[in-house]
Design brief:
Distance between the termini: 206 Å
Oligomer: single chain
Number of strands: 11
Order of helices and strands: HHEHEEEEEEEEEEH
Structural class: alpha+beta
Mean pLDDT: 79
Strand content: 15-25%
Largest sheet: 6 strands, antiparallel
Radius of gyration: 46 Å
Helix content: 25-40%
Low-confidence stretches: none
Protein backbone atom coordinates (compact mmCIF):
# COMPACT_ATOMS: atom_id res chain seq x y z
CA UNK A 1 0.00 0.00 0.00
CA UNK A 2 0.96 3.56 -0.69
CA UNK A 3 2.08 5.64 2.17
CA UNK A 4 0.15 8.58 3.46
CA UNK A 5 2.50 11.17 1.88
CA UNK A 6 2.02 9.60 -1.52
CA UNK A 7 -1.76 9.72 -1.12
CA UNK A 8 -1.63 13.40 -0.26
CA UNK A 9 0.56 14.05 -3.31
CA UNK A 10 -1.94 12.30 -5.60
CA UNK A 11 -4.83 14.29 -4.16
CA UNK A 12 -2.92 17.56 -4.68
CA UNK A 13 -2.15 16.69 -8.32
CA UNK A 14 -5.78 15.73 -8.96
CA UNK A 15 -7.17 18.99 -7.56
CA UNK A 16 -4.61 21.02 -9.50
CA UNK A 17 -5.81 19.48 -12.78
CA UNK A 18 -9.51 20.31 -12.12
CA UNK A 19 -10.34 23.81 -13.67
CA UNK A 20 -11.45 26.35 -11.25
CA UNK A 21 -15.05 27.56 -11.60
CA UNK A 22 -15.46 31.33 -11.39
CA UNK A 23 -18.76 32.45 -9.91
CA UNK A 24 -20.96 34.52 -12.25
CA UNK A 25 -21.42 38.08 -11.29
CA UNK A 26 -24.90 39.59 -11.07
CA UNK A 27 -24.23 41.89 -14.03
CA UNK A 28 -23.22 39.02 -16.29
CA UNK A 29 -26.36 37.12 -15.38
CA UNK A 30 -28.54 40.14 -16.24
CA UNK A 31 -26.80 40.63 -19.61
CA UNK A 32 -27.37 37.01 -20.53
CA UNK A 33 -31.00 37.33 -19.52
CA UNK A 34 -31.45 40.41 -21.69
CA UNK A 35 -29.88 38.66 -24.67
CA UNK A 36 -32.26 35.73 -24.30
CA UNK A 37 -35.42 37.92 -24.31
CA UNK A 38 -36.85 38.12 -27.88
CA UNK A 39 -36.88 41.61 -29.40
CA UNK A 40 -40.14 42.72 -31.02
CA UNK A 41 -39.75 43.68 -34.73
CA UNK A 42 -40.20 47.29 -35.77
CA UNK A 43 -43.78 48.12 -36.82
CA UNK A 44 -44.30 48.25 -40.57
CA UNK A 45 -45.05 51.62 -42.19
CA UNK A 46 -46.75 52.57 -45.44
CA UNK A 47 -44.52 52.66 -48.48
CA UNK A 48 -43.80 56.00 -50.13
CA UNK A 49 -46.30 55.31 -52.90
CA UNK A 50 -48.65 57.90 -54.46
CA UNK A 51 -51.16 56.83 -57.09
CA UNK A 52 -51.14 60.31 -58.67
CA UNK A 53 -47.36 60.90 -58.71
CA UNK A 54 -45.77 61.08 -62.14
CA UNK A 55 -43.03 58.47 -62.76
CA UNK A 56 -44.04 56.59 -59.60
CA UNK A 57 -42.01 53.43 -58.93
CA UNK A 58 -44.26 50.36 -58.46
CA UNK A 59 -44.95 49.57 -54.82
CA UNK A 60 -43.55 46.02 -55.07
CA UNK A 61 -40.17 47.44 -56.02
CA UNK A 62 -40.36 49.89 -53.12
CA UNK A 63 -40.89 46.95 -50.76
CA UNK A 64 -37.82 45.16 -52.09
CA UNK A 65 -35.51 48.19 -51.92
CA UNK A 66 -36.78 49.76 -48.70
CA UNK A 67 -34.45 49.31 -45.67
CA UNK A 68 -37.51 48.99 -43.46
CA UNK A 69 -40.57 46.82 -43.98
CA UNK A 70 -43.40 48.80 -45.60
CA UNK A 71 -46.95 48.06 -46.65
CA UNK A 72 -48.50 48.61 -50.09
CA UNK A 73 -52.12 49.71 -50.65
CA UNK A 74 -54.61 47.03 -51.56
CA UNK A 75 -54.74 45.88 -55.17
CA UNK A 76 -57.24 43.75 -57.02
CA UNK A 77 -56.34 40.41 -58.53
CA UNK A 78 -54.06 40.45 -61.60
CA UNK A 79 -56.48 37.97 -63.18
CA UNK A 80 -59.10 40.74 -63.43
CA UNK A 81 -59.08 43.79 -65.75
CA UNK A 82 -58.00 46.96 -63.95
CA UNK A 83 -60.48 49.44 -62.54
CA UNK A 84 -60.85 52.75 -64.44
CA UNK A 85 -58.19 55.35 -63.63
CA UNK A 86 -59.22 58.75 -62.27
CA UNK A 87 -58.68 61.61 -64.69
CA UNK A 88 -57.36 64.70 -62.94
CA UNK A 89 -56.40 68.17 -64.12
CA UNK A 90 -56.37 69.00 -67.84
CA UNK A 91 -54.32 72.12 -68.63
CA UNK A 92 -55.04 73.58 -72.08
CA UNK A 93 -52.44 75.70 -73.90
CA UNK A 94 -54.48 77.45 -76.59
CA UNK A 95 -51.48 79.25 -78.14
CA UNK A 96 -49.78 75.92 -78.94
CA UNK A 97 -52.91 73.86 -79.59
CA UNK A 98 -52.00 71.34 -76.90
CA UNK A 99 -53.13 70.09 -73.48
CA UNK A 100 -51.43 68.42 -70.49
CA UNK A 101 -53.54 65.52 -69.15
CA UNK A 102 -52.94 64.13 -65.64
CA UNK A 103 -54.50 61.06 -64.02
CA UNK A 104 -54.25 58.76 -60.96
CA UNK A 105 -53.65 55.01 -61.05
CA UNK A 106 -56.44 52.60 -60.04
CA UNK A 107 -56.25 50.05 -57.22
CA UNK A 108 -55.29 47.36 -59.70
CA UNK A 109 -52.16 45.95 -61.32
CA UNK A 110 -51.50 47.99 -64.49
CA UNK A 111 -49.06 47.26 -67.31
CA UNK A 112 -49.73 50.26 -69.53
CA UNK A 113 -52.01 53.25 -70.23
CA UNK A 114 -53.23 55.06 -73.33
CA UNK A 115 -55.52 58.00 -74.13
CA UNK A 116 -58.61 58.12 -76.34
CA UNK A 117 -59.65 61.43 -77.94
CA UNK A 118 -63.04 62.10 -79.53
CA UNK A 119 -63.67 65.10 -81.79
CA UNK A 120 -67.44 65.11 -82.14
CA UNK A 121 -69.00 61.80 -83.17
CA UNK A 122 -67.15 58.96 -84.76
CA UNK A 123 -64.20 56.77 -83.92
CA UNK A 124 -61.71 58.04 -81.32
CA UNK A 125 -58.03 58.74 -81.86
CA UNK A 126 -55.91 56.32 -79.81
CA UNK A 127 -52.67 57.57 -78.33
CA UNK A 128 -49.42 55.60 -77.98
CA UNK A 129 -49.04 53.09 -75.09
CA UNK A 130 -47.49 54.48 -71.90
CA UNK A 131 -45.77 52.41 -69.20
CA UNK A 132 -47.21 51.94 -65.72
CA UNK A 133 -45.10 54.71 -64.12
CA UNK A 134 -46.54 57.46 -66.34
CA UNK A 135 -49.22 59.72 -64.82
CA UNK A 136 -49.34 62.59 -67.32
CA UNK A 137 -48.85 63.18 -71.03
CA UNK A 138 -49.33 65.89 -73.64
CA UNK A 139 -51.97 66.04 -76.35
CA UNK A 140 -50.89 67.90 -79.48
CA UNK A 141 -52.58 69.07 -82.65
CA UNK A 142 -55.76 70.36 -80.97
CA UNK A 143 -57.85 72.77 -83.05
CA UNK A 144 -58.78 76.15 -81.53
CA UNK A 145 -62.45 76.63 -80.77
CA UNK A 146 -63.20 72.86 -80.83
CA UNK A 147 -64.60 70.72 -77.99
CA UNK A 148 -63.15 67.24 -77.36
CA UNK A 149 -63.74 64.26 -75.07
CA UNK A 150 -60.60 62.67 -73.59
CA UNK A 151 -60.45 59.36 -71.68
CA UNK A 152 -57.60 57.43 -70.05
CA UNK A 153 -57.55 53.62 -70.26
CA UNK A 154 -55.55 51.19 -68.08
CA UNK A 155 -54.66 47.68 -69.22
CA UNK A 156 -53.02 44.50 -67.91
CA UNK A 157 -52.76 40.89 -69.02
CA UNK A 158 -56.44 40.25 -68.16
CA UNK A 159 -57.87 43.12 -70.21
CA UNK A 160 -58.49 46.86 -70.13
CA UNK A 161 -60.55 49.19 -67.97
CA UNK A 162 -64.08 50.14 -68.96
CA UNK A 163 -65.38 53.53 -70.09
CA UNK A 164 -68.69 55.13 -69.05
CA UNK A 165 -71.28 54.38 -71.72
CA UNK A 166 -68.63 53.16 -74.15
CA UNK A 167 -70.18 52.48 -77.52
CA UNK A 168 -69.66 53.23 -81.13
CA UNK A 169 -69.80 57.02 -80.78
CA UNK A 170 -67.80 57.63 -77.63
CA UNK A 171 -68.73 57.85 -73.97
CA UNK A 172 -71.97 59.51 -72.97
CA UNK A 173 -72.45 61.81 -70.01
CA UNK A 174 -68.80 62.73 -69.62
CA UNK A 175 -69.74 65.75 -67.52
CA UNK A 176 -70.39 63.27 -64.67
CA UNK A 177 -69.76 61.42 -62.52
CA UNK A 178 -66.81 63.27 -61.04
CA UNK A 179 -63.41 61.61 -60.72
CA UNK A 180 -64.05 59.34 -63.68
CA UNK A 181 -61.73 58.29 -66.52
CA UNK A 182 -63.18 60.81 -69.01
CA UNK A 183 -63.64 64.56 -69.26
CA UNK A 184 -64.67 67.22 -71.75
CA UNK A 185 -61.92 69.37 -73.19
CA UNK A 186 -62.72 72.75 -74.81
CA UNK A 187 -59.94 74.57 -76.65
CA UNK A 188 -60.55 78.35 -76.67
CA UNK A 189 -59.80 80.36 -79.82
CA UNK A 190 -56.32 81.70 -80.13
CA UNK A 191 -55.83 85.38 -79.16
CA UNK A 192 -54.51 86.15 -82.65
CA UNK A 193 -57.69 84.75 -84.16
CA UNK A 194 -59.76 87.06 -81.95
CA UNK A 195 -57.76 90.06 -83.16
CA UNK A 196 -58.31 89.03 -86.77
CA UNK A 197 -62.02 88.61 -86.13
CA UNK A 198 -62.26 92.07 -84.53
CA UNK A 199 -60.42 93.67 -87.46
CA UNK A 200 -62.69 91.88 -89.91
CA UNK A 201 -65.84 93.05 -88.13
CA UNK A 202 -64.53 96.65 -88.07
CA UNK A 203 -63.76 96.59 -91.79
CA UNK A 204 -67.20 95.15 -92.54
CA UNK A 205 -68.90 97.92 -90.54
CA UNK A 206 -66.80 100.57 -92.31
CA UNK A 207 -67.72 99.16 -95.73
CA UNK A 208 -71.40 99.09 -94.81
CA UNK A 209 -71.26 102.70 -93.68
CA UNK A 210 -69.54 103.82 -96.89
CA UNK A 211 -72.03 101.88 -98.98
CA UNK A 212 -74.96 103.46 -97.15
CA UNK A 213 -73.57 106.96 -97.75
CA UNK A 214 -72.95 106.31 -101.47
CA UNK A 215 -76.41 104.85 -101.89
CA UNK A 216 -77.94 107.85 -100.15
CA UNK A 217 -76.20 110.40 -102.43
CA UNK A 218 -76.97 108.43 -105.60
CA UNK A 219 -80.63 108.16 -104.66
CA UNK A 220 -80.75 111.90 -103.97
CA UNK A 221 -79.30 112.74 -107.37
CA UNK A 222 -81.70 110.43 -109.23
CA UNK A 223 -84.92 111.37 -107.53
CA UNK A 224 -84.03 114.98 -106.96
CA UNK A 225 -84.52 116.93 -103.84
CA UNK A 226 -86.63 120.11 -103.55
CA UNK A 227 -84.41 123.03 -102.98
CA UNK A 228 -85.37 125.83 -100.71
CA UNK A 229 -86.19 129.12 -102.42
CA UNK A 230 -84.05 132.03 -101.52
CA UNK A 231 -85.88 134.68 -99.58
CA UNK A 232 -85.97 138.20 -101.14
CA UNK A 233 -83.61 140.59 -99.55
CA UNK A 234 -85.26 143.06 -97.26
CA UNK A 235 -85.52 146.57 -98.66
CA UNK A 236 -83.90 149.32 -96.65
CA UNK A 237 -86.36 151.57 -94.91
CA UNK A 238 -86.37 155.11 -96.26
CA UNK A 239 -86.21 157.74 -93.68
CA UNK A 240 -88.24 160.90 -94.07
Amino acid sequence: MLGFPCLLWLLAVTFSLVPRVHPLATEDFEEEKEDETPRSPLPAVLCDYDRCRHLQVPCRELQRTSPRACLCPGFSSPLQPPSPPRLGEVHVVAEEGSAIVHWCAPSSPVHQYWLLLWEGSGAPQKGPPLNSTIRQTELKGLKPGVAYVVCVVAANAAGESSLPGAGGEGPEGTSGPAFGPCSRLAVPPRPLSLVHAAVGVGLALALLSCGALVWHFCLRQRCGCPRRRARPAARPVERL
